Input
Amino acid sequence: MRAAGVDEVRFPVPLLGARLVKRHKRFLADVTLDDGTALTAHCPNTGSMLGCHTPGSRVWLSRSDNPKRKYAHTWELVELDGGVLVGINTGRSNALVREAIESGVIGELAGYDEIRPEVRYGNENSRVDFLLTGDQVACYLEVKNVTAAVDEGIALFPDAVSVRGTRHLRELIATVGDGGQRAVLCFCVQRPDVREVRPADDIDPDYGRTLREALGAGVEVIAYRAKLSPEAVALAERIPVVCP
Output
């Protein structure tokens, strides 16, 4: 485990500033770099990116030197009205949560000796994001990245119908039902301008129903909000999950 106070995931190289032209084909985004270069970047987000892909938005990209990649650049951040930065790379959420566990930010998950990623489990042949083990009861931890929000500081998940996310909830419910095991869902909220997370019932009512079922079954549901900059991202504080 890492020492308390180490809670940032830093970008390995400085991000490149750009303007979004458009997101297309789900995993691609056309952008124009600050120096005028036009290019296509990988968009690492499977959702609708509700409110986060307006043409003309200021965005930041990372760059890989891997020659096997078709697109060297990856879209990492977008700036919304008012200067709010949102992390759209869902691939970073697991690293953020792991760093926050190891540095003691997520107190609810303290005290485990080992964190194993991508462990196969459950009746529906799933992989849990992390299995935490040690002297206490084993904990199955699922992580979900949150970027969508509406007025009044309310973050929403999911931002598109998520059959996979609902399946993961069913697996967590079954894990608790087996007895003697702990199941936790952690919403990794990669935007600093929200005060709570709610299920997006209008977008995916099945997910909302299953989330409420999970809470009733004993699955622990928590949310942590990130602070972001073009240099680093870090989970900073817990915010409530509200299921009206």
Observations:
- The CA atoms of residues 61 and 75 lie 5 Å apart.
- The first helix runs from residue 93 to 102.
- The chain has three helices and 16 strands.
